[in-house]
Amino acid sequence: MNLKNYNSxxxxxxxxxxxxxxxxxxxxxxxIASLMGVLISSPNKIYNLINKGxxxxxxxxxxxxxxxxxxxxxxxxxxxxxxxTLLLIGILxxxxxxxxxxxxxxxxxxxxxxxxxxxxxxxxxxxxxYGFIFLSLTLHSMESYxxxxxxxxxxxxxxxxxxxxxxxxxxxxxGIQWSLLLxxxxxxxxxxxxxxxxxxxxxxxxxx
Length: 208
Known about the structure:
Layout: H1 2-40, H2 43-52, E1 58-61, E2 64-67, H3 70-73, H4 80-112, H5 119-154, H6 156-161, H7 178-207
Helix pairs in contact: 1-4, 4-5, 5-7
């Protein structure tokens, strides 16, 4: 019964990661399409699209979510370079996340097939750990740039600095997400354990 539940759990996990791959792939394609749209569209066309619809703006800072009124929204300034950079960042991160999910699904599939302690699985786990380490070293900078881009597009700094409770705004570019870094190091260590397990398996097979 425990073995049956374990196999069912692995198959469910495999389907879950397959679904996540599809979602991330769709997001990637949408970002590529948006990037092409930004490259071929003129600023006037962008403003016309915005004027025809309604642009709702909010900014989430960890547990705090700010919703801005029309005064801020109407100050939107189209900057192709900023939009272009934001889309490139989104494409890069979607590739990294897709890679992590892809190799995790490959790992789960190999476990379902009882092909566990192999060099291939060790390499897959190493690639997953590199993805986490990359995110831990760059996520803080990406968040800072997002806030910077948001303030530039909506001239948010001028609004904040005109209030009595804000003297100035600064952006901290460098930082480390320690939880992701620790997860990456742990996953990398597990890859070495798998590699050693593969070595022991080969020694056992040769002995027999």
